[in-house]
Amino acid sequence: MCARTSFNVNILDSTLRDGSQGEGISFSVQDKLHIVQALDELGVKYIEAGNPGSNPKDLEFFEEAKKLSLQNSQIVAFGATRRKGITCEEDSNLQSLLYAGTQTVVIFGKSWDFQVTDILKATLEENLAMIKETVEFLVANGRNVIYDAEHFFDAWYANPEYTLKTLKAAVEGGANILALCDTKGGTMPMEILKATTAVTSEFSGVKTPQGLPVEIGIHTHNDAGLAVANSLMAVEAGASHIQGTLLGFGERTGNANLSSIISNLELKMNVPCLPEGKLKLLTSVCKKVAEVSNLPLENGMPYVGSNAFAHKAGMHIDAVTKNPTAYEHVSPETVGNDRVFLMSEVAGRATILEKIRKFDAGITKDNPVVSEIVTKMKEMEHNGYQFEGAEGSFELMVRKIIGKYRPFFKLHYYKTIGEQPRIDGLLCSFAQLKIEVDGQLAVTAGEGDGPVHALDTALRSALERFYPTVSTIRLTDYKVRVLDSKSATGAKVRVLIETTDGLDIWTTVGVSTDIIEASWLALVDSFEYKLIRDIEKKYKNYI
After folding, report:
1. What confidence score (pLDDT) does residue 541 get?
2. Architecture of domain 10-293
3. Domain ranges of the chain
4. In this structure, are strands 474-482 and 440-448 parallel, antiparallel, or unpaired?
5. The predicted structure's pLDDT at residue 2
6. What are the φ and ψ backbone dihedral angles of 178, each rounded to 5 degrees?
7. How far apart are CA 162 and CA 123, in angstroms?
8. Average of per-residue pLDDT across 485-512
9. Which of 271, 256, 263, 253 is nearest to 189 (CA)?
10. What number of CA atoms fall less than 13 Å from residue 494's CA on the CB side?
11. Class of domain 409-466 as given by CATH
12. Are the beta carbons of 79 and 93 closer than 8 angstroms?
């Protein structure tokens, strides 16, 4: 473990710039503003928010961002060195960077002689002039400059002498942070260590013309699966600035995952990189960013994923309940996550007991209800249910057995109708249902892209009258598994539904030979789980 307790690393999050280049990512201006506020809450130093010279949406964002009052973070604009053959004053992209109005600007330039001569089609001397003059221009206009040395590691091992000249040109222009970029993402950790050590040694004690000490940074991609490791190796070599994206998404296989890097720096290497107390917000902020990005937060993501502190085997669970260090490398609370005991046929009584105590702390291991729950769970799993991935339905089942449940509505009937042929080329389905809440009847109908969507719409419409918070629920995933393919169209199916209200995420399950009924069972559990949680938050003691 590193003992450099006074050594700080500043974090630059590029979710809104490099992250937006990932497949399936498309941020609106409002999305970007929400993510900025989440990252500011976490306390990262820099938020790289886009290239104002590349598209009108980024220009609009920077205009709106000027209205924000941030507590911890600086928004930075991103752009390239001036184009060859023109002055900085003539370069429209540099003018856009000034218009963005950010105090700090990130500029990328060519480090690799091959990129300069074969891709940029410029001379090596002209490239040095482009770097220096661009940084000088921005500094003269009152900006702090972070210089991103594109393809640095490929360049260093091909022609270290010229590569070093490009860094010196940036410093002579006034850049005080030099970010070494593993642009292709294929450099090995020991190569990162060797090159970064050489650069930190070269610039040790060096200052810009404005008197600012030069810092070395790192920007890695994950094409070889080493982005996090390479970033940490750079810190070992003396880097004090790390770039990445909070959840690791980005072009190709993604960028360095900052949620892992931050956790490892703070908890493993004793290197502060967030304001004091902010690490506990990491998981919740990651969930917010995933939600706004309209991407699921990967269950297996280190530190912040739902499975990061999940235990399934009975022996493991028994040990963790006695002493968590038996199978956990850090406490989940340190990063704002939760310990999870997965429900399955291999779970022991200790697992069941731990779950029950969330609802009734007075139940002991000798209470007959524990055996009743174990028996019921195994019976349902034999019939096709799977509680390992459906904690919401498991909780409702336990509540029903121990008496900590009441139904929120009574179903009188539902029916679905499919329309064929398609209407205007679209598949359309309709659902009608009748429910009763405290003696009051509600009959509603819904239309959707399929029968489950139509049922969801109809049930939501009926319940919102009685339970307004239902309007915050959104289904984020829907999975169907055929359990016995030999029975063909008469096979039993298991439906898993993942749901969110923007803050929490839960999964429920339904099983039937009728896919509509299986979906209905999972859907009802999903709504009831939300309503129970709302009551518990309000009254704390729900029975």
Report:
1. 46
2. Alpha-Beta Barrel (3.20)
3. 10-293, 409-466
4. unpaired
5. 42
6. -110, 110
7. 12
8. 80
9. 256
10. 19
11. alpha beta
12. yes
